[in-house]
Amino acid sequence: MMTMRWSVRVMIQQSLSVCFALTFFLVMMTSSVSAQVEQVNELQFPPLPDLVIPQPERVVLDNGMTVLLMEDHELPLISLSAFIRTGSRLEPKDKIGIASLTGTVLRTGGTTKQSGDELDEFLEGKAALIETSIGGTAGTASLSCLKEDFPAVLDVFNDMLRTPAFAPEKLKIAKNQMMAGIARQNDDPGGILSREFKKLVYGKKSPYTWFPTYSTILSITQEDVVNWHHTYFHPNRMILGLVGDFQKDQTIALLNKVLGDWPKGPEPKDSLAFIQESVTAGVFYVEKNDMTQAKIAMGHQGIRRDHPDYYSLVIVNQILSGSFGARLFSNIRSKQGLAYDVHGGVGLGWDHPGMAILSMSTKTQTTRKGIDALISESHKMVSNPPTEEEVANAKASILNSFVFSVDSPSKVLGKYLTYEYYGYPSTWLKTFRAGIEKVTVAQVRQAAERHLRPQDFAILVVGPREGTKPALTQYKDIQELDIRIPEPPKGT
């Protein structure tokens, strides 16, 4: 008993000693800090070291394939990404969906050497991954694996790109999945808003606004998919990016061995997809009666990133909705309580204009207030232009967060792949901060006035007729959009 009491006593004494030492340390620290500064803004910090951004090694194989390499020896892993010059914007109108199907079955349909299921087993056995897809402006393929497995996985990756089987049963599964998606395309109000607003901005004749239907999917055959692949999958239409634990010279030799005998294809001569010159201003409505809110979007075309106003608009977007203290959040969400989610900015596309869009969700009874609030905030970017403080804060936020976009070799390589694919200079990343720093308050104001034009807005409202009707009566002409899904052809 005495021994236990003595142990408890010792523990208490030790705890008191630790508490006293900690209290003394905190008092001394507080005294030291208070002796130096009295206000937080008086604190001084040493300048941050220069941010060093690595640049990948660029090599072009004899067959025209461009390769970007960035070594990273932290882990025994290698990742490869490929950009292929293709995309759904190149689809004929009677075969909409062929690009997406090709991108899916390229992976699931196997190769002439392995079925899709055998490929799955091979990759699972090596804890490796291969994925493919084709989006609006590009096709992508990627692999990741252990360093020791890279030669074997690269062989399979090469077979998949060059000699895919496009197995009929896998194509059928992919088509059924796409048709199931078509059946559900009007379930999500956000999806409706995005799809229909894009049609208003780019025009119904633009491939950027085309979406698959039952008819277009059912018309696509295995031969169509094979022909699509033969048209666009050539080494001189591809850019590879490798990052990981490899030696540059050995890896280039391996790539030449595996991919170098792939014959070069015709020179790419793809024309840019059609986009209407201007947006028809007005009010457009989509009836969706199973909603308790209204979704609102308004705007017009944005710009490409190579536009002279690019850096100014990055700052404009930050001031509009780049943080919880930004204008849209502060004025519409916090002060007026009209929306939980509200966003806005001028879209910055790579090889075609983005969309300048302001959007929100609001209660049906506040639909009119929501529309008016978004228009008002757009007007205020001119009538109450960005202040010097807003511009300075936006710049600081953009520049301070920049480091997180380049904090790993894979992120840096991804950016360089994008620049290479869309024809931007390799210095684009390194000049970004300087471009932001040089922007003046006057340039920000001018850019906001040029690229946010409320008088040109197309306004789209998605919501229940009964709830949104009072808000829409303020407009003389309202165009209702028909979003009914065309039935599949008879006999299918």
The rough form would be described as globular
* CATH homology superfamily name of the largest domain: Metalloenzyme, LuxS/M16 peptidase-like
What is the tally of helical segments? 17
| Class inferred from helices and paired strands | alpha/beta
Q: What's the overall average pLDDT, rounded?
A: 92
Number of domains: 2
Oligomer: single chain
Strand arrangement, major sheet: 1-2-6-3-5-4
Helix content: 40-55%
- CATH class value of the largest domain: Alpha Beta
Verbal overview:
It is a single chain. This protein has two domains: 57-259, Cytochrome Bc1 Complex, Chain A, domain 1, CATH 3.30.830.10; 282-480, Cytochrome Bc1 Complex, Chain A, domain 1, CATH 3.30.830. Helix content is 45%, strand content 16%. The chain has helices at residues 2-36, 98-108, 116-125, 150-162, 168-183, 189-202, 214-219, 222-232, 248-259, 310-321, 327-335, 367-383, 388-402, 409-422, 432-438, 441-451, 465-472, and strands at 57-60, 66-71, 77-84, 129-134, 139-146, 238-244, 282-287, 293-301, 303-304, 342-346, 348-349, 355-363, 458-463, 478-480. The strands form three sheets. The protein has a six-stranded mixed beta sheet with strand order 1-2-6-3-5-4, sandwiched between helices. Strands 10-12-8-13-7-14 form a six-stranded mixed beta sheet, sandwiched between helices. A two-stranded parallel ribbon has the order 9-11. Strand 4 (129-134) and strand 5 (139-146) form a beta hairpin. Helix 2 (98-108) crosses helix 5 (168-183) and helix 10 (310-321) crosses helix 16 (441-451). The model is unreliable at 1-35 (pLDDT under 50).
